[in-house]
Design goal:
The chain is mainly alpha-helical and 466 residues long. It contains 20 helices and six strands. Strand 1 and strand 2 form a beta hairpin. The longest helix has 36 residues. The structure holds arginine. The site of arginine has 10 residues, from helix 7.
């Protein structure tokens, strides 16, 4: 028999029950639902709305139910529709009338909004921790490769020399922004909607702030209509996760390129690679490909929820139940990808020789050679033209800026001297880029220090393997 059977004379159709039920996916909110109910019951007693003895019985029994669920001794029945009714029904089965008083001054509309905020705050914490671990791994890789010269690319064409550390620190910068985005998201989500009731609050003298405090929220939502119908925090989290996945996906794309035979800048550990069923020689970067692939489903969740929300009038509409599968899937996906991605990076081998020899081809020191002439007094535009001619000549003859003779240089400009060879050395080119943010080992040290402080402020130390 349905909770609302008083108003109805017929049972709902079985297919409607199936469509309507959210229990198969919202049962994961059991812990937050019980914690919310305990705080609510306690507050109701403190405010004299229900009896203290009854509240204590409710609280103790909810504790038992929590233990039973965690021990796998709880039967979830689809007929109970959702996790909220499932737990309330069991409570009432166990303690009768006292259980029936729990839902005083509350609606499932504010209850589900509360549960979801509590749940997502925790998952954000998990994700936040995983991103910090990833940044720590990047720090370690970069700290060990500040002198590993590699080509930096624009248009995927070799452009100028940099170091592996500098390239890796670019990703550290992206993931730092992801960390602070998640922190912002938590901050905005950190308000308890309980007490919004179905949509216009309640007539009971409840203490919303006490419940919020008991549950660890910073405060309470300001408007009851908004409190039950707002899903900005879910959309914001999905946006943050989409951006995070976009970063992971770009990185994955580079990993995939780098372990191709064409690059061979890195080799992934066997533990983080897979083979082919037919081609015996293959070693595939499936982890990176899957991370890149799964990015699409996280974007999909963001689009799905934005679309669900766009036409909803105030306040609660059942459409809102569609938020959960999307955000749960996104959170699960991100939490599945991050630790594996980090471990894949931690165990890869970096091939400095391959990176350096790639950097030796493609005239990536041409800008530096032009800068050399500028230091000798030539305006940059003229220097640029001279070097362009030299490069064209080198391409014709199959030589490089390093292998030209001084005489050959001088045929293009009398300003060239013996010191040009030092100027075009890759290590010189890198070391001269000391500008803040640049690839010179000294400049990268500053970036590393920034990351170290960022991690330290968040309780992550670089040394112990926590
Ligand atoms: N299970 C619902 C949800 O996930 C909460 C229930 C609100 N239902 C209602 N008929 N007002 O959004």
């Amino acid at each position: 028999m349905k909770l609302w059977s008083g108003r109805f004379s017929a049972d709902t159709d079985a297919l409607v029950d199936e469509l309507n039920a959210s229990l198969p996916f919202d049962r994961r909110l059991y812990k937050e639902d019980i914690e919310g109910s305990i705080a609510h019951a306690d507050m109701l007693a403190a405010q004299g709305v229900i009896d203290r003895a009854e509240a204590d019985l409710i609280i103790a029994t909810l504790g038992d139910i929590l233990k039973d669920i965690e021990a796998g001794n709880f039967e979830f029945k689809l007929a109970d529709e959702d996790i909220h009714m499932s737990i309330e029904a069991e409570l009432t089965r166990r303690i009768g009338d006292a259980g029936k008083r729990l839902h005083t001054a509350r609606s499932r509309n504010d209850q589900v909004a509360l549960d979801l905020r509590l749940y997502l705050k925790r998952r954000i914490e998990d994700i936040h921790g995983e991103v910090l671990h990833l940044i720590r791994a990047l720090y370690k890789i970069a700290a060990a490769t500040t002198d590993a010269v590699m080509p930096a690319y624009t248009h995927l064409q070799r452009a100028q020399p940099t170091t592996f550390a500098h390239h890796i620190m670019a990703y550290a910068a992206m993931f730092r922004r992801d960390v602070t985005r998640l922190e912002d998201c938590t901050e905005r989500m950190d308000y308890s909607p309980l007490g919004s009731g179905a949509l216009t609050g309640t007539t009971y003298p409840i203490d919303r702030m006490a419940v919020a405090k008991a549950l660890g929220f910073a405060g309470i939502t300001e408007n009851s209509m908004d409190g039950v119908s707002d899903r900005d925090y879910v959309i914001e989290l999905l946006s943050d996760l989409s951006i995070l996945m976009m970063h992971l996906s770009r990185f994955s794309e580079e990993i995939i390129l780098w372990c191709s035979w064409e690059f061979k800048f890195i080799e992934l550990s066997d533990r983080y690679s897979t083979g082919s069923s037919i081609m015996p020689q293959k070693k595939n970067p499936d982890v990176a490909e899957l991370v890149r692939g799964k990015t699409g489903r996280v974007y999909g969740s963001l689009m799905a929820l934005l679309t669900t929300m766009k036409g909803l009038p105030l306040a609660y509409n059942k459409d809102l139940q569609e938020d959960k599968e999307q955000v749960f899937d996104a959170v699960d996906t991100v939490l599945k990808c991050l630790p594996v991605f980090t471990a894949m990076l931690e165990t890869m081998t970096i091939n400095r020789t391959r990176m350096r020899s790639a950097a030796l081809q493609g005239f990536i020191n041409a800008t530096d050679c032009a800068d050399y002439l500028v230091r000798k007094g030539l305006p940059f535009r003229d220097a640029y033209t001279v070097i362009g001619r030299i490069v064209a000549e080198c391409v014709r003859r199959g030589c490089t800026l390093e292998t030209m003779t001084l005489e050959e240089y001088r045929a293009f400009s009398p300003l060239f001297d013996d010191d040009v060879f030092k100027a075009v050395r890759l290590e010189t080119c890198v070391a001269n880029r000391q500008v803040p943010g640049g690839p010179a080992p000294k400049a990268v040290e500053v970036q590393l220090e920034g990351v170290r402080k960022f991690l330290e402020e968040r309780g992550v130390t670089l040394h112990d393997e926590a």
